[in-house]
Amino acid sequence: MNFSFLNPLFLIGIAAVALPVIAHLISRKSGVVKKFPAVRFLIASRGDASARSRLKDLLLLLLRALVIVLLVLVFAKPALFSFAPAGSGGPKALAIIVDNSFSMGYGDNLERAREKASELIETLPDGSFGIVAPLVAGEEGRLSPSSGEEALRDGLSGIKISSTFTDNEKRLEEAFSALEGVPGQTKKVVFITDLQKNGWQNEKADRDWLDIIDVSKEAAPANHAVTGIDASYGKDAVTLGLSVSNFSDKPEEQLLATMSAGGEELSAYLDIPPGGKVLNEFTIPGEYISGDKPFDKAQDRSSGDARDTFKVGSAGIPRDRLAVDDTRYIVISDRDDFNVLIVDGDPREDARLSETYYLARAAETISEITGAHITVKDNDSFLGEKLSGYDLVFLANVGDVTEGSAKELGEFAARGGTAVIFLGERVRASSYNALLKDLLPAELIAEEEREVKIVPLPQPIFPKEVGERLSQVGVRKHIKAVPYPGAEVLLGLEGGDPFMIKKSLGKGSVFLITSTADTSWNNFSITTVFLPVVKGFLDMPGSANEGRRNFIVGDTIAIDASAGADRVEVISPSGKRYVIDTGSALFEKAYEPGIYTVRESGKDFYKFSVNVDPRESNLEKSETAPEGPDAEITPGLVKVYRDIWRYFLWGAVMLFISEAAARAVFS
Amino acid sequence: MVNGILDIETASRLRRFYFRSQSRVRGRKAGIHKSLYKGISPDFLEYKEYNRGDELRQVDWRLYGRHDRLYVKKFEDEVNLAWCILVDSSASMGYGEGGSQKLRYAERLAATLAYLLLRQGDSVGAGSFSGKDLSLIPPRAGNSYITPLLNKLETLTPSGGTALAEPLLKALEVFKQDASFVIVSDLLTDESEIEKALQLLKAAKKEAVIFHVLHEDEIDFGFRGPLEFLDMESEEKVIVDTDAVRDGYRKRIREFTERLKLLCHEYESRYVLSPTSRPVEEPLIEIADK
């Protein structure tokens, strides 16, 4: 409940409290002098009366001042109010989604969000159904409507800060969907959030059913975060790269950054411009990390057992108001590299016109999270390139393919790598069909130039929201392809031609996109679905993830196990134990940042790190934020007032009577 | 005849009242007061056995017939008396407006009494005292003496303090013969001063009547709200909430008058409370023979 005045201008009248005080002071220094013969009796009497008189004066002064204050308050019309969704006063169906993404750990944002949610619960009329759930579900937070206030409050009390980054829109839409079938004329989703810009794919979208309450106090919250930590391996040493970002509009000077690894602790003072990021490298001799075993970047992942070489490290900066992103963890191993090769078949001097410009940008963005290394090569360089050090290879409009490169690609995929092939005007269908026959999921027929949309299909590898937005993609030109048996059409075009086809090859996969990676044939790379699709390639389990030891909160993590082991145990940083069946070997409970330990047969097998998503550290606010004095309320919410001025009036009357009574008693 | 301070109508209404001394006095002229000496007045006093030297015309022959012994009738001798009327003209007596001013009231009371005393054949002297000063005109008899008395009384102006004993001592020097003293005052001075004055009067074997003149404000204290008061004699200032001190003040002024009454009784003087709101004839009737 909040307190407000409907006529606040009347509060100026509070100044009238000065009147009885002034009257009291003036009366005490009366200007009237009266000549009197029997003053000696007055002096004698004054002693008796002075204490009583002082008490009386103070009491009367207090009562009179209070009468004035209460009367002024009556005219100012005090009222209690709370926020409630607009609509009829009847039963409602209301989903309250509390943003518990880790940015809400900034200051007391989560506490304020809880208070707002509690107020909303109070305003629900009898018979209403509601959902109180966190934005980031984690292990709890199912969207099941209930009707009792107690159940809603239980839901509220269970909301805790999550370390996971999430897609707001998806969760909110799920919440709204959960209200379907619930009785109640008004169906609303109220999102209580800090309005952080990240997490909104389409922040300007009009959603009648959604009301947003902004609980953050600051318009531009400042935050510093360790946004990246990676390792590069030399022959005798490992270089740990630490990225520290300044998400504020003020420069940060001499920020102490500390790196701990292999029992060594190194520190540096960093100057970071407003909104900038600084990379600082710490070099640690190899023996500190792996004992007497030097690092060998070219070591073949498939051979040798280097599991005992895993060492942990962490980097930190002084704690600020958002502490969770002030530390980042890393497990250092010779197997940690995640390498992406992008082959540009049509490079240009102006990088923005290159075939792979958007692809490379997308991969770089994702690499900020995953720590992947991006390498871009042209067609000629690709022909002589060994792919054994790569996890993911993109071919974009690559015209020249040799038998050797085709063989290398085939072996790469068989080992567990992922190959993604974009076509284009340089691609000759006959050459591809001949040289890459064992690799391609479809036979290429001929170019077709007509404007078509992508037909949304059920997508097992892409999130639901990505599939729904694929209709944004318009294709002007593509190469007609006929899938080979065993290949799977993941996306199609209007008219029936395939757009994306997948083929499993050995331990890996090959994806064929029948149009270009740039915007010459389509707008795919400039739509909002491009980035999630590219990330989908990086997240493919069973391919690039093998051997990775550093993850983001919420990732599905493929757990390595020794041959013959039935199960392994994963121990979280807080000590929770999870038993993983080596049949699936997927760990889906990486909800807390820190170092996890994988144990096999009662012994530590290896470790992996889980870090928060650095995108969440940028607390820049969304433009969805309402403006104006009632900035924390969107138009969909109304203030529900409860008049209380009558109580003040009664109070004034009672005080008035008390004043008269006090005068009578003292007279 | 109406003088400024003498209301002749009031005086006329009191014509049948007499003001007698409570004790016998050594008057030289015929009057209404019982003389210390037995004489030929028509008032029978007692019988006494005849002795040589007694006048034979005073022998009660009827009693001789019944008892066969000679008794002589004794009669009261009635003489006149001197009165000393002293009016307090200290500054505190200036309180009040117009006719309710204490000094004006005291003047009217004194003038009326003087008029009545002269009419009953007594000699009257009058004066005023302020501080230690005494201004007095000597006592004389005769109705015509009222004019100088009135002239004396109506010229009084309130000033100075109230010191009772010193002026009284001076007055006693003037009134060495038997005399009654009338003091008209607000008695707003130290009670020890008042007691000293009463002691002097008793020691000098002078009867005294004390008219205690108080203004209605001094009795009821009917002021409202906080006021700053300035003492009319000491010029001491005090700010009081009149509502708060009223009860205490009234209690104290009541106790003061009660103590004065007891004090006067102790020293065989008569105390008459004379608020200015009271017509002057009422306190006069209080001390008159009815």
Write the layout of secondary structure elements.
The complex is a heterodimer of chains A (667) and B (290).
Chain A: E1 2-5, H1 18-28, E2 33-36, H2 39-76, E3 78-85, E4 92-98, H3 109-123, E5 129-134, H4 149-157, H5 168-178, E6 186-193, E7 210-214, E8 223-233, E9 237-247, E10 252-261, E11 264-272, E12 277-285, H6 286-290, E13 311-316, E14 327-332, E15 339-344, H7 357-370, E16 373-378, H8 379-383, E17 392-396, H9 403-415, E18 418-422, H10 429-435, E19 442-455, H11 464-469, E20 474-483, E21 488-493, E22 498-505, E23 508-513, H12 530-538, E24 550-552, E25 557-558, E26 567-571, E27 577-581, E28 586-587, E29 594-600, E30 603-611, E31 637-643, H13 645-666
Parallel strand pairs in A: 4-5, 4-6, 6-7, 15-16, 15-17, 17-18, 18-23, 24-30
Antiparallel strand pairs in A: 1-3, 3-31, 8-9, 9-12, 10-11, 10-13, 13-14, 19-20, 19-21, 21-22, 22-23, 25-28, 26-27, 26-29, 29-30
Helix pairs in contact in A: 1-2, 2-13, 3-4, 7-12
Chain B: H1 8-13, E1 30-49, H2 61-67, E2 71-79, E3 82-88, H3 102-119, E4 123-130, E5 133-140, H4 146-154, H5 165-174, E6 179-185, H6 191-203, E7 207-214, H7 216-220, E8 226-231, E9 237-241, H8 242-266, E10 270-275, H9 281-287
Parallel strand pairs in B: 3-4, 3-6, 6-7, 7-10
Antiparallel strand pairs in B: 1-2, 4-5, 8-9
DSSP strand content of chain A: 25-35%
Total domain units of chain B: 2
Average of pLDDT of chain B: 84
CATH top level of the largest domain in chain B? Answer: Alpha Beta
| Count of extended strands of chain B | 10
Give the name of the CATH superfamily of the largest domain in chain B. Answer: von Willebrand factor, type A domain
Distance between the termini of chain A: 44 Å
Helix content of chain B: 25-40%
For the largest beta sheet of chain B, what order do the strands appear in spatially?
5-4-3-6-7-10
Largest sheet geometry of chain B: 6 strands, mixed
Quickly count the domains of chain A.
5
Instruction: Give me the Rg of chain B, rounded.
Output: 23 Å
Oligomer state of the chains in this structure: heterodimer
Here the CATH topology of the largest domain in chain A equals Rossmann fold
Structural class of chain B: alpha/beta
Note the run of SSEs of chain B as H and E. HEHEEHEEHHEHEHEEHEH
CATH homologous group name of the largest domain in chain A: Class I glutamine amidotransferase (GATase) domain
| Strand neighbour order, sheet with most strands of chain A | 16-15-17-18-23-22-21-19-20
What is the makeup of the main sheet of chain A?
A: 9 strands, mixed
Show unreliable segments of chain B. Answer: none
